[in-house]
Amino acid sequence: MSATRPDAVVLYGPPAAGKDTVTAALTAVDGRYVHFDRLKAGSGKSIGYRHTSAGDLAQLHDRHLIVYANERYGNIYAIDSPRLDEIITAGQIPVVHLGQIAGITALRTGYPARWLTVLLWCPRNITRARLHERGSSDPEERLRVWDETQADLAAAAPGTFTMVLRTDQRTPAAAADLIHQTLTGAPEHLPPVRDRLP
Q1: CB–CB of 56/69 below 8 Å?
Q2: pLDDT at 137
Q3: What is the DSSP letter of 136?
Q4: How far apart are CA 197 and CA 123, in angstroms?
Q5: Hey, is 46 helix, strand or coil?
Q6: Domain that holds residue 120
Q7: Residue 107: inside a domain, yes or no?
Q8: What's the rounded Cα separation, in Å, for the pair 171 and 195?
Q9: Is residue 101 part of a domain?
Q10: CB atoms within 10 A of CB 160
Q11: Which residues of the chain carry a pLDDT beneath 70?
Q12: Which of 13, 63, 109, 198 is deepest in the core (most CB within 10 A)?
């Protein structure tokens, strides 16, 4: 990819893998990192999303402004190019959370950025414990999504991820430091970070 393309980050992983905490750690490392607040049509959690309607999403899709959309937990989530443009134009680095390989493909082919793709992973029992600790109202549904993410990951093509980080073995700050070093350093001089998956 061209070095003149803006930087952007994808954090891919199952529920409770640490996408929010690693994003918070990234913003502490460098204020240019900003969580990409996806569009959301539906109910439930509102923090970290821009709420909209299914009709408005359809209109954006018709105008070719939706880079990727998916349905989960009875809601529709979407990544729109105007918001990506807004973040990048402000000199910031969008950090996009995903749980689908198709989303990574859509971003790489549908939005001109230098995408650093990071797999954040933790074992299923760790996910269960984390869901319990944070008082999740639908832990079984989240664990079902963990299973779906594992199956989705099995179909990933070689080279899908720039980095693979186990969040049960690294602190959020350590993971953020590695991501930042990889994004801002010379990739040819940095050894690839590939934690072993369970």
Answers
A1: no
A2: 80
A3: -
A4: 8
A5: coil
A6: 7-37+91-189
A7: yes
A8: 13
A9: yes
A10: 17
A11: 1-3, 186-191
A12: 13
Three-class HEC string of the chain: CCCCCCEEEEEECCCCCCHHHHHHHHHHHCCCEEECCEEEECCCCCCCEEECCHHHHHHHHHCCCEEEEEEECCEEEEEEHHHHHHHHHCCCEEEEEECCHHHHHHHHHHCCCEEEEEEEECCHHHHHHHHHHCCCCCHHHHHHHHHHHHHHHHCCCCCCCCEEEECCCCCHHHHHHHHHHHHHCCHHHCCCCECCCC
124 falls within a domain: yes
Q: What is the CATH number of the domain that holds 172?
A: 3.40.50.300
Chain mean position to CA 86: 18
* Cβ atoms of 97 and 8 closer than 8 Å: no
Contact in structure between 90 and 83 (CB atoms under 8 Å): no
Reduced to 3 states (helix: H, G, I; strand: E, B; else coil), residue 20 is: helix
Looking at the 3D structure of the chain, how many domains does it have? 1
Residue 76 belongs to a domain: no
pLDDT of residue 1: 39
Count CB atoms within 10 A of the CB of residue 159. 7
Put simply, whether the predicted model's pTM sits higher than 0.85 gets the answer: yes
Q: For the chain, how far is it from start to end, CA to CA, in angstroms? A: 31
